[in-house]
Please model this.
Amino acid sequence: MNAVHCQQIEKSFGSGETEVKVLRGVDFTAHQGEMTFLVGPSGCGKTTLISIIAGLLGSDSGSVELFGESIASLSSREQILFRRRHLGFVFQQYNLLPSLTAAENAAVPLFAAGMNRKAAVAKAADLLDRLGIGHRAHALPRLLSGGQQQRVALARALVHEPRLIICDEPTAALDHKSGESVMELLSNSAVHPDRAVIVVTHDNRVFHFAHRIAHMDDGVITHTESSAPTAATH
Model:
């Protein structure tokens, strides 16, 4: 089943002489049970596309379906609730709250969903333990290494068990060893039959984790290739 199905997505910024057409009729699909990489040069429209898929940005034309549901048919509140329930995000810059511990940062989606604080932090701490940094659950972000902060960000994306996980350059700020480790954790934790993962990356060192690689250039998907991941995905 398609987790994400985009048809003829167009998006421009500015108007008149300053108008810049970023997406030029994008067709893109991500399947459940797979990790799909979205790759291409800087400025080709990757971040704009995932922002539209996530409902954080509207398109000028075209359609987006997530798990068979048209996002445009939802009200603004319904879109917020849909994202809260079904989407998890891993950002390049981690975006951890400096005054919260690792476990509290990882528990933020559970707080937003109304879970009891103690139960939410306990669930997040258990996930951090499974990701190999349970011993740092009570540390503040400034006391964590880059790799540890990325694992907290990964835990935050996974803790509410979303169906779609979107990662924007998850290894960009990491050395090769840490990047491989984070991708292995993401692959093992996130790729399941009822879940899909989209990874935007320039890092060709981690391409071997992908089931499918969509190449993007100048606002369109130029071609998509299938791949058999060399890392275990279950």
User: Anything to note?
Assistant: The mean pLDDT is 91. Residues 9 and 26 are 5 Å apart (CA to CA).
